[in-house]
Amino acid sequence: MDRWQTIIEPFRIHAVEPIRLTTETERGSALEAAGWNLFGLRAEDVLIDLLTDSGTGAMSRDQWAAIQHGDESYAGSPSWFTFLEAVRELFPFRHVIPTHQGRAAERILFAVAGGPGRVIPSNTHFDTTRANVEFTQAEAVDLVVPEGLSPSTLHPFKGNLDVGALERLLEERGADVPLVMVTITNNSGGGQPVSLENLRAVRALCDRFGKPLFLDACRFAENAWFIKTREAGHAERAVTDIVREMASLADGMTMSAKKDGLANIGGWLALNDDSVAEQCRNLLILTEGFPTYGGLAGRDLEAIAQGLREVVEEDYLRYRVRSTAYLGDALVGAGIPCVQPFGGHAVYLDARGLLPHIPPLEYPGQALAVELYRAGGIRGCEIGTVMFGRHPDGAEAPAAMDLVRLAIPRRTYTQSHIDYVIEVARDVAARASTLRGYRIVREPAALRHFSARFEPLS
Ligand code: F0G
């Protein structure tokens, strides 16, 4: 280990984007206009935007240079081959099908593999994955290990799939299971990684029951870094080697290049099965585009190819994971309960723990997220009863946890931006007992967190 403790960003700034400073009064008016829903804000009214790490990162000099090589030929563009080679370098699947983002790959995969009566197990389905499974009337089942559901339990691989539970499901309903999914890292469960040992055990079960295994690989590089640094026997391995082993254990993958592709848009579906691939390509042509560009421009394919080379660099990954933990350590140090250990891409604040006087149906996560914005212009994302509390039958019930996710865009904010976030969060936590809940005054039929309007309770 290096003897210097300061985490330096392993890059210099090459182009700058202004951040517009706002006052608390201005932010109060912006909140009122947005119905206290942070998705309704104008991004210019946000100082530090931690809503998501998806597509919001900074591209490198070499990615911007690669964009100039973008070739926009409809079929067989050189940019397609550059992309294909970069994907296959890490994930040597026989078929690679480019899409405009991750959920388009999910939509195509489950249109082929899903359907009424089918059941798709995963450690935890991300919400778009679950929605795409359920849209085909199949059932999405989450089988994460018990540690993955307890915010404060320390375990190095809280994203692991519960192998015993998967075995029982395959014994009882094996005929209904078209494939098994594993999300690396487990975003809905706090950005927690999956170990190689667990992936190997899931692979062995899939072999025993003759099921294909698919990775939702959005944050594959962060997952590989956690394997290298936390799992015995992998410390000396190259990250690329670990990534290729994860790929070798699977039969296919869905991917959002907006995360560990280090790009602002893009994704793909990859798999080995020729006949499934043909069905998927036919669907691709219906909604995304010709199979050598999917939903992307040639220049996007170039940016992703270069991003894939950069995301596996060890200096980058060391900084990425340490700088996220830097935020988490400071928040925990300030007495703010968080999901631990910290994931790679985000810190998840336990709002129910911090605001025990606000009952779940008065949305403690919303109260905390709104106050972080009002006080300091920081935009996080409620992941709790607002997001998951309304059920298809119309009933409302508390979600399993009320969290606020502070997701860190890649290579975008400096340590002083994060120090500012820490200062604001400390101030809000010190006044926690004065925060009040919210009520929803208008909500749509589904996915209410995006567009509901709220009112503060007095
Ligand atoms: N799978 C996981 C694990 C994700 O985190 C996401 C997106 C997707 C699939 C879908 O990819 O957005 O390219 O269609 N997560 C973003 C987030 C939106 O904020 O966590 P997409």
Strand and helix order: HEHHEHEHEHEHEHHEEHHHEHHEEHEHEE
Number of helices: 16
Globally, the shape reads: globular
Instruction: Spell out which ligands are present.
Output: ligand F0G
Mean pLDDT: 96
Write down how many β-strands occur, each being a DSSP E stretch of 2 or more residues. Answer: 14
Number of domains: 2
Describe this structure in words.
40% of the residues lie in helices and 12% in strands. It is an alpha/beta fold and 458 residues long. It has two domains: 24-53 and 313-456, Aspartate Aminotransferase, domain 1; 61-311, Type I PLP-dependent aspartate aminotransferase-like (Major domain) (Aspartate Aminotransferase, domain 2), CATH 3.40.640.10. The chain has a five-stranded mixed sheet, with helices on both faces. It has a three-stranded antiparallel sheet with strand order 9-12-11. Strands 1-10 form a two-stranded parallel ribbon. Helix 5 links the parallel strand 3 (119-122) and strand 4 (139-142). Bound molecules: ligand F0G. Residues 52, 54, 101-103, 126, 128-129, 183, 187, 216, 218, 256, 258, 267 line the site of ligand F0G.
Notable characteristics:
alpha/beta; Aspartate Aminotransferase, domain 1; Aspartate Aminotransferase, domain 2; 2 domains; 5-stranded mixed sheet; binds ligand F0G
Q: What is the topological layout?
A:
Layout: H1 24-33, E1 48-49, H2 61-67, H3 78-90, E2 95-99, H4 102-113, E3 119-122, H5 127-135, E4 139-142, H6 163-173, E5 180-183, H7 196-209, E6 213-216, H8 220-230, H9 239-248, E7 252-256, E8 267-271, H10 274-287, H11 298-311, H12 314-333, E9 346-350, H13 351-354, H14 364-376, E10 378-379, E11 381-383, H15 385-388, E12 403-407, H16 415-430, E13 438-442, E14 453-456
Helix pairs in contact: 1-14, 2-11, 3-11, 4-5, 4-10, 6-7, 8-9, 12-16, 14-16
Ligand F0G binds at residues 52, 54, 101-103, 126, 128-129, 183, 187, 216, 218, 256, 258, 267.
